[in-house]
Amino acid sequence: DLTxxxxxxxxxxxxxxxxxKNGAIIARHKAADPIxxxxxxxxxxxxxxxxxxxxxxxxxxSLISLDGNIxxxxxALPELQIVVTKYKNAS
Length: 91
Prior knowledge:
Radius of gyration: 12 Å
Number of helices: 0
Shape: globular
Helix content: under 10%
Number of strands: 7
Order of helices and strands: EEEEEEE
Strand content: over 45%
Structural class: mainly beta
Distance between the termini: 36 Å
């Protein structure tokens, strides 16, 4: 169970509220631009890197910053609420 709600998009950044339920997983993917992930509720795991070998627990207040083009995955344990901010590269 996954829900995504766009909260803002001002041309420089996109902010989304993401809820994962029942152990849902956002499978391995990458964003072209840098992101931050702020856990606002529940618990889960954030894995990153070529082999998904870097894993961080997500608990309320956890903040992760990730450069663009890095593989990552998010897993709810069992439910998780996060705010994802995608920062668009200025060119």
